[in-house]
Amino acid sequence: MKVIVVGNGGREHTIAWKLAQSNIIEEVICVPGNGGTAFEKKCRNIDFSKCEYLNGITGNDAYIKVAKENNCELAVIGPENPLAEGLADLFWNAGIPTVGPKFQAAQLEASKDLAKGFMHKYNVACAKSKTFTSKEEALIYIKEQGAPIVVKADGLAAGKGVVVAKTLEEAENAVEQLMDGSIAGEAGKKLVIEEYLRGTEISILAAVSVTKEFSEQGKSCIVPFLSARDHKRLFDGAKGPNTGGMGAIAPVDDATPAIISQFEKNILEPTLKGLESENYDYRGFIFFGLMLTEDGPKCLEYNVRLGDPETQAVLPLMDFDFASLCKSITDGSLKDFKLEWKKGYQVAPVAVSGGYPKSYKKGYNIIINEEKVNESNAKVFIAGAMENRRSQSPDDTKLVTSGGRVLACSAYGTTFDEAWKNAYEAMSGIKFNDMFYRKDIGLPGAAESN
Ligand code: AMP
Ligand code: GLY
């Protein structure tokens, strides 16, 4: 069958690559895809502006038209924005089974107030919190609670909406700036103010298959993947500004079996119960952002999709057919699906354009020593790079940089040390102007903790 993958990041390259490995997949249509999917076996990028058959159809309707035109029988939606806008509903209405929650369930990421209300209602282990639309009331509450305290914009804010305030002054400034729209625009008009949690963070990605009908038949479930860890700060030692993610590892040794079983009991199971009770149609992936505290794991957030760059570390360890997993999510057979994992580790540092997360230049040639990458058991997942369409000179490469996070070099090893050495050996064979990457992904002291 043919499958359409929506998105253009490193996560979507990884999803497309893994789908393409399946015998049941004939072609992966990537919309719009990126420089990675452009050269991936069985994958084809589609650029809306070049589709004559779209005839003026734009926005989310264009995805449906492209999927229909190409006879796609499955859709996988990568990023949160189209999910929050209801793209999954449109695909289902058009008769295309889709991996990605429908509109209502997708608001669990789009509104932190809704997510926290859900967690409190169903007793999901999480930080105490309160929601405010009045600045004055928010400021009074902060004074009562004291610092440290966490101030969060309610809406989607591309990582800019959370302020972990160490002092009362910082918290008060955050309230002022979020509510006047200067940090996160409209997203900050409503605020969630949250208890500060001490601990180390991990991410657990999972497959979800919940509908009213499945629940009545006892088929609704959430099936967790291996644990993973993102490294969000720009510099080694978890220093510097926040980024979209500078690298990931999987699995994480400090997510012990005891912690995983606490997570299942206190977070996963109540979440499943909540999704069922709310009658959500949630067939897709979920990302649990967790803080490992002294009192056990607490849920910091839900993302209604796979994490980026965690996906680049987790999917290569899958020893099962990913396309069949996706199908099982949509048709109610996920509960019977057997997930097997490669024994070992995956380490995936990310290379970024110099200047990121502030301004950076684009259009640089990317040199990749394929032999070194292959010998290191690594795979390069492209994020911010595109096919080079300039007139080819002998020095031109097939890819040029086009974004902040350019690529992840994800390597396997039977031990963590081996995976780590492989990843950095492969990375040493990749070059572009002003390239920058962290040298400590997965090492002690690299993880965010407080
Ligand atoms: P979120 O988007 O809600 O996951 O928040 C972004 C980041 O802020 C998280 O990855 C944590 O590093 C930090 N954070 C969020 N909530 C808390 C909390 N309650 N206590 C401490 N740190 C937090
Ligand atoms: N890695 C965190 C995220 O995808 O938002």
Automatic annotation (TrEMBL):
<dbReference type="InterPro" id="IPR016185">
    <property type="entry name" value="PreATP-grasp_dom_sf"/>
</dbReference>
<dbReference type="InterPro" id="IPR013815">
    <property type="entry name" value="ATP_grasp_subdomain_1"/>
</dbReference>
<dbReference type="InterPro" id="IPR011761">
    <property type="entry name" value="ATP-grasp"/>
</dbReference>
<keyword id="KW-0067">ATP-binding</keyword>
<keyword id="KW-0436">Ligase</keyword>
<dbReference type="InterPro" id="IPR000115">
    <property type="entry name" value="PRibGlycinamide_synth"/>
</dbReference>
<dbReference type="GO" id="GO:0046872">
    <property type="term" value="F:metal ion binding"/>
</dbReference>
<comment type="similarity">
    <text>Belongs to the GARS family.</text>
</comment>
<dbReference type="InterPro" id="IPR020561">
    <property type="entry name" value="PRibGlycinamid_synth_ATP-grasp"/>
</dbReference>
<keyword id="KW-0658">Purine biosynthesis</keyword>
<protein>
    <recommendedName>
        <fullName>Phosphoribosylamine--glycine ligase</fullName>
        <ecNumber>6.3.4.13</ecNumber>
    </recommendedName>
</protein>
<dbReference type="InterPro" id="IPR011054">
    <property type="entry name" value="Rudment_hybrid_motif"/>
</dbReference>
<comment type="pathway">
    <text>Purine metabolism; IMP biosynthesis via de novo pathway; N(1)-(5-phospho-D-ribosyl)glycinamide from 5-phospho-alpha-D-ribose 1-diphosphate: step 2/2.</text>
</comment>
<dbReference type="GO" id="GO:0005524">
    <property type="term" value="F:ATP binding"/>
</dbReference>
<dbReference type="Pfam" id="PF01071">
    <property type="entry name" value="GARS_A"/>
</dbReference>
<dbReference type="InterPro" id="IPR037123">
    <property type="entry name" value="PRibGlycinamide_synth_C_sf"/>
</dbReference>
<dbReference type="GO" id="GO:0006189">
    <property type="term" value="P:'de novo' IMP biosynthetic process"/>
</dbReference>
<feature type="domain" description="ATP-grasp">
    <location>
        <begin position="116"/>
        <end position="331"/>
    </location>
</feature>
<dbReference type="InterPro" id="IPR020562">
    <property type="entry name" value="PRibGlycinamide_synth_N"/>
</dbReference>
<dbReference type="Pfam" id="PF02844">
    <property type="entry name" value="GARS_N"/>
</dbReference>
<dbReference type="GO" id="GO:0004637">
    <property type="term" value="F:phosphoribosylamine-glycine ligase activity"/>
</dbReference>
<dbReference type="InterPro" id="IPR020560">
    <property type="entry name" value="PRibGlycinamide_synth_C-dom"/>
</dbReference>
<dbReference type="InterPro" id="IPR020559">
    <property type="entry name" value="PRibGlycinamide_synth_CS"/>
</dbReference>
<keyword id="KW-0547">Nucleotide-binding</keyword>
<dbReference type="GO" id="GO:0009113">
    <property type="term" value="P:purine nucleobase biosynthetic process"/>
</dbReference>
<dbReference type="Pfam" id="PF02843">
    <property type="entry name" value="GARS_C"/>
</dbReference>
